[in-house]
Amino acid sequence: MLNLRSETMKKTPEKPEVKKLSAESLIERTLVLVKPDGVQRALIGRIIQRFEDAGIKIVGAKMRWIDREFAKKHYSAHVTKPMYKGLEDFIVSGPVIALVLEGVSVVETVRKIVGSTEPKSAIPGTIRGDFAQHSYSYADAKNMAIKNLIHASGNLEEAKQEIALWFSKDELHTYKTVHEIHVF
Ligand code: GDP
Ligand code: MG
Question: 127 CA distance to ligand 1 centroid (A)?
């Protein structure tokens, strides 16, 4: 016979063990480019401000005008796509600002601050949502890349490859900011 009392006295199952990660392992680096449209529209300062405001640290920065060969390396995942010609024309059309940013889960956080690829559907408050307006159909109709101001690495693996492509080890710096006292 079922003994109700002993059934209800049974201990609730233990919470499964979740491996605790070290804080250091959650600090990432990502590559950001202010594309030629952002440089030529004089938005460099306002774009960088968005990352600095979030307490994200700049650990590498330079201006560079890349050639077509380098563009193919940077956009290797896109070279076979029909839109690639327009993308290459765009990224080599003027200098870009290349940044390496560091922070807590920064690859994902930076993509959130940047907003969706298509500015038309990027929400207000994001860089692409506030400063750009292209749609896929408009850019495709003009055979040009969507002008969306920013490149940001899509995931941690991509970030590691892109940082190694754009920066040498001695161009990346380690230093303390006030955010490390108040944010981390
Ligand atoms: P991102 O990671 O948000 O920059 O987007 P992707 O890696 O998918 O694409 C790289 C860049 O190519 C985008 O930022 C756009 O400038 C451009 N692009 C992507 N998809 C399209 C498309 O369907 N049409 C056009 N015209 N441009 C595109
Ligand atoms: Mg991408």
Answer: 15
At 63-87, the pLDDT tens digits run 999 999 999 999 999 999 999 999 9
- Please answer whether residues 74 and 91 qualify as being in contact, where contact means their C-beta atoms are separated by less than 8 angstroms: yes
3-state secondary structure of 169: helix
Closest by CA to 104, choosing from 13, 4, 183, is 183
Per residue in 116-165, pLDDT tens? 999 999 999 999 999 999 999 999 999 999 999 999 999 999 999 999 99
Distance CA 170, CA 56 (A): 20
Residue 41 domain-assigned (yes or no): yes
Q: Which residue's C-alpha comes closest to atom 4 of ligand 1?
A: 151
Domain that holds residue 60: 21-172
Q: How many structural domains are present in the chain?
A: 1
Nearest to 34 by CA among 131, 176, 152, 139: 152
Any domain includes 1: no
